[in-house]
Design goal:
The complex is a heterodimer. Chain A is an all-alpha fold. Chain A has one domain. Chain A is built from 7 helices and no strands. In chain A, α2 crosses α6. The two termini of chain A are about 40 Å apart. Chain B has one domain. Helices cover about 85% and strands about 0% of the residues of chain B. Chain B is built from 8 helices and no strands. The longest helix of chain B has about 30 residues. Chain B is globular and about 55 Å long. The relative contact order of chain B is 0.13. Classes of the chains: A mainly alpha, B mainly alpha. At the A-B interface, α4 and α5 of A face α6, α7 and α8 of B.
């Protein structure tokens, strides 16, 4: 996908810089005092960008699935599955940070909230995607059919996470009559951390994905090199 | 185009008629599930709240739908499927299958609803809205589950896979259906349900369009 010259590595340095800035600001920066939220508002820098990152990674995974179906290039399938894996990792981390936050502000670790439940369903979908992948032996077939399911899943996921919570009451801001966080509890200073945090976590996700894709490619290469040897030995015997 | 779809649908009906045991099995499945629920609740039938009545009905229907639609691709042998693909375009095949499954679901849902009201009591106050909702649900179930059945049939162990793949996919649909039918049960003004019905129509359209676009890639493998 990328040759690792200096020109293509700048975004990794950017990710490190942004995340350092976000973590420092998130732990010791000044934040506005809000009733109920108090200091837990700092979680906005971690919990929310993780979800944004997850959705961006899922979208990228779907785009690579579409590209696979159009081109039949196995490499696109590898990239798609690794983006999905990273999205699942972000999803689990988002659930964990959200759970901690909900425990202190809403009183229970898993409130019955449409958005929370929607995300849980999305996690189920992507786990099902991984199970579907493992149930095939034939590589081409696995790639094609899981790409189809990936596209289908993402399209169903969008109404689940963006439309349904807005139709009902939700504890999350921006749903069911609650104003979105842009409108009140964030001041300009918080925005200066929050928006870079989204970019930083997304870059981190892309970085993880890139490493895993390279690992997978190397493994495929070594499998190709090692495989003929045992076969040759058995035929010689 | 329309004629070919008609012929393909006729084929589906004939196939079903020749294997009547499968159809009868489905009918018996929904009737016995309803009856099991009736017996489980029979002691306190008058305490059954509309909420429970509603949720139970849709869960029964969901399981019936998954079982009924799961067989739409495994019924025929691979060689015969290959033969159809030489005759018709994949879009015609998926449309005919979805239409057939919709009709099957409408029949099953209608039967299930009438038997359910017979034994569990009818609590619906706005019957036309409930029936319209049932129809929308049948279309949605048929459209989303037909493609999933196609995906699951390509893998081994397809029965488990069918359930695992389809539950999360039909969930947004199911939530909307339950909400609208709860409104119908309570006899609320219809303008209350308009938002939900709009979303239902949108979800149905999304799944139909995706099935139409993705199936050509599926059948080639």
């Amino acid at each position: 996908m990328k040759n690792n010259s200096k020109a293509t590595r700048w975004w990794k340095a950017l990710a490190v810089l942004i995340l350092t800035y976000v973590i420092v600001q998130g732990l010791i920066g000044t934040v506005p005092r809000q009733p109920i939220l108090n200091e837990s508002i700092r979680n906005v820098y971690f919990h929310v960008p993780l979800w944004f990152g997850m959705i961006i990674l899922m979208l990228t995974s779907m785009v690579f699935s579409i590209r696979y179906l159009r081109s039949g290039n196995m490499d696109h399938d590898t990239v798609a599955v690794e983006f999905a894996n990273t999205a699942i990792l972000f999803g689990v981390l988002g659930c964990a940070t959200g759970s901690v936050w909900a425990n202190y502000t809403w009183g229970e670790p898993w409130p019955n909230d449409p958005k929370t439940n929607g995300v849980a369903v999305a996690m189920l979908m992507y786990f099902a995607y991984l199970i579907l992948r493992n149930s095939f032996d034939d590589e081409l077939r696995r790639a094609r059919i899981s790409a189809i399911y990936n596209i289908f899943t993402f399209a169903v996921f969008i109404p689940l996470i963006f439309i349904l919570p807005r139709l009902t009451d939700s504890l999350h801001p921006g749903n069911g009559g609650n104003p979105a966080f842009g409108q009140y509890d964030m001041d300009n200073q918080m925005r200066a951390v929050f928006y870079p945090a989204i970019i930083g976590f997304t870059l981190l996700g892309v970085w993880i994905t890139e490493l895993r894709v390279r690992l997978r490619r190397l493994r495929e290469l070594t499998d190709d090199i090692q495989d003929p040897l045992p076969k040759a030995r058995t035929t010689a015997e | 185009m329309m004629r070919q779809i008609g012929v393909l649908m006729e084929k589906e009906f004939r196939l079903e008629w020749r294997q009547r045991y499968a159809l009868n099995g489905m009918l018996l499945y929904i009737v016995s599930t309803v009856f099991v629920c009736f017996l489980s609740f029979s002691l306190r039938r008058n305490q059954l709240t509309p909420m429970v009545w509603n949720a139970l009905f849709w869960i029964i229907l969901l399981f019936t739908a998954i079982n009924a639609i799961a067989k739409s691709f495994v019924q025929e042998r691979a060689g015969r499927l290959l033969y159809y693909y030489t005759l018709a375009s994949p879009q015609q095949i998926i449309i005919s299958k979805i239409l057939y499954n919709t009709i099957l679901m409408v029949v099953l849902a209608g039967l299930g609803f009438s038997f359910y009201t017979l034994v569990m009591g009818n609590q619906v106050q706005d019957l036309p809205l409930f029936l319209a909702n049932l129809l929308l649900g049948s279309v949605g179930f048929a459209a989303s589950l037909t493609l999933v059945a196609g995906i699951a049939s390509k893998a081994e162990n397809s029965a488990t896979l069918m359930a695992v793949l389809s539950f999360p996919v039909v969930l947004p649909l199911l939530l909307m259906l339950i909400r609208v039918s709860k409104n119908a049960l309570d006899g609320l003004d219809r303008s209350v349900s308009l938002d939900e019905i709009g979303t239902l129509l949108a979800i149905d359209a999304i799944v139909l369009a995706l099935s139409w676009m993705l199936f050509p890639y599926l059948w080639r493998s």
